[in-house]
Design a protein that fits this description.
35% of the residues lie in helices and 18% in strands. It is of the alpha/beta class. The strands form three sheets. Strands 1, 2, 3, 4, 5, 6, 7, 8, 13 and 14 form a ten-stranded mixed sheet that branches. It has a two-stranded antiparallel ribbon with strand order 9-12.
């Protein structure tokens, strides 16, 4: 479907949206028309507020069964004038009957980080042949009665064939934060139309998604209380600021490198495309010599990406940071400790080809402490309850300092450490283990669910 020329959703599209996915069963015609008008009005209002008056129109919608009575609805929206100004809202929820979500008092909005969009981050098992289909965070929460929403940020939709990334010039923390605000507004409105009470939602951001979420909360403090949308915040394995001088110094070096690329008009990076290739080779030709890294087989390089991620970064900012806890024979990885290696390789194949550089530059400016950026000016005015969830081999305890800048009084934290002391950090529970490890449900997901139930 093509977007409308203005900010109006054509009636036939809105009616299809209503009948196919989000309505409460069979409606009388008058009730259906009322629902359609309400959705159109809310969409236009939310787009105007969230995207500075840019075009906003429905591009497409998908409903798919994930597991038992758990379904995913994907709503693709044009949120700006450019062909790539597109986001997708995802909803993972139990259905009472075909196309009818159950009423769910608890809800959460998920924001992915680098490399992976919503599905790769929070629904990776749905595309896996290695693990049970239900072994994904979003499905776990939905099975426990939580209404799960999330977003694909704009860069997730950029196809591998693109070569000119000038449209990404202004894709930074601020833009992504505004898109999150738009997503929250639409999610809350649609929940009301499904019979849930009007209320705020918990916001969970993983990795770079936590930085985007911090930026959103910082901006939301400047709205009147009745217009704020977040009831609680769960940053997952991410630092928004850094306390340690050496880490800040390295962040400043990283900022200088990436900022110089921005100044040279390099607005997009192909890290996802490279990870896709590594995952594909690790699965299809595991024992052949890697054409990417001499001295390693394709399988070993895939394991290296997971278990020694820090060695692929320059400069290294978070020491010994890695995706997955690994096992080594000398310096060569021989296996993964908590995530099945085939599942991890399948996850690499789910990476989005390209990502914008702007939000990474902004994050490094925050970590460095210079130059001044506007995304932390009001953190002391953030007062919602907070749960920090980290991985001892990921960002881990380095993310705790950021919590001290908030005005929240209800703050708790949990850093998953499976090995006995800090010297084991290079092989401890990792950044991606939080969502892909076989024991993640017990160690990570259940504590988050318990927190949601009590907040």
């Amino acid at each position: 479907m093509r977007k409308d020329s203005g900010m109006r959703i054509p009636s036939r599209v809105a009616v299809w949206l209503c009948i196919g996915v989000l309505c409460l069963g069979t409606r009388a015609r008058a009730e259906e028309e009322q629902w359609t008008r309400a959705l159109r009005t809310q969409l236009e209002k939310s787009c105007q507020e969230g995207s500075a008056g840019a075009l906003c129109a429905l591009e497409g919608l998908e409903r798919r069964r994930l597991f038992e009575d758990i379904y995913e609805y994907s709503l693709r929206l044009q949120v700006g004038p450019g062909v790539h100004d597109v986001i997708t809202l995802h909803r993972v929820v139990r259905e009472a009957s075909a196309g009818v979500p159950v009423r769910a008092p608890k809800s959460v909005f998920l924001v992915h980080g680098d490399v992976w969009g919503f599905r790769g981050a929070f629904l990776s098992s749905a595309e896996s042949t290695e693990v049970l289909r239900q072994q994904s965070f979003a499905i776990f929460l939905a099975r426990q009665g939580v209404d799960v929403w999330g977003i694909d940020l704009r860069w997730v939709h950029v196809p591998a064939t693109v070569t000119d990334f000038s449209f990404m010039k202004d894709w930074n923390l601020g833009l992504h934060a505004r898109d999150v605000g738009l997503g929250l507004a639409l999610a809350r409105s649609m929940r009301v139309l499904d019979g849930n009470a009007w209320g705020r939602m918990a916001l969970l951001g993983w990795s770079r998604g936590a930085a985007v979420s911090y930026a959103y909360l910082n901006a939301e403090t400047q709205l009147p209380p009745e217009l704020r949308q977040v009831s609680g915040f769960i940053p997952v394995d991410m630092a928004y600021t850094l306390e340690e001088p050496l880490l800040r110094e390295n962040a400043c070096k990283g900022y200088a490198i990436l900022d110089s690329q921005l100044k040279a008009k390099v607005y997009g990076i192909d890290i996802g495309a490279r990870l896709q290739r590594i995952g594909t080779l690790a699965l299809s030709r595991p024992e052949e010599p890697s054409p990417i890294r001499a001295g390693l087989t394709n399988r070993q390089l895939g394991l290296f990406v997971g278990s020694a991620t820090y060695a692929l970064q320059e400069p290294v900012i978070i020491p010994e940071y890695h995706f997955t806890g690994g096992q080594f024979s000398g310096f060569v990885p021989s296996g993964l400790s908590w995530t099945r290696e085939r599942f991890f390789f399948e996850g690499l194949m789910q990476a989005a080809p390209y990502q914008s550089l702007g939000e990474q530059v902004d994050t490094l400016a925050m970590w460095c402490g210079a130059p001044d950026v506007p995304y932390d000016d009001h953190l002391s005015e953030v007062t919602v309850p907070v749960l920090y969830m980290g991985a001892a081999g990921g960002v881990g305890s380095f993310g705790l300092h950021s919590l001290t800048l908030l005005g929240s009084t209800d703050v708790s934290s949990r850093v998953v450490q499976l090995l006995p002391d800090a010297s084991a950090r290079p092989v401890d529970f990792g950044h991606v283990d939080l969502f892909e490890a076989g024991n993640a449900e017990t160690l990570v997901w259940t504590p988050i669910l318990d927190w949601l139930r009590h907040h």
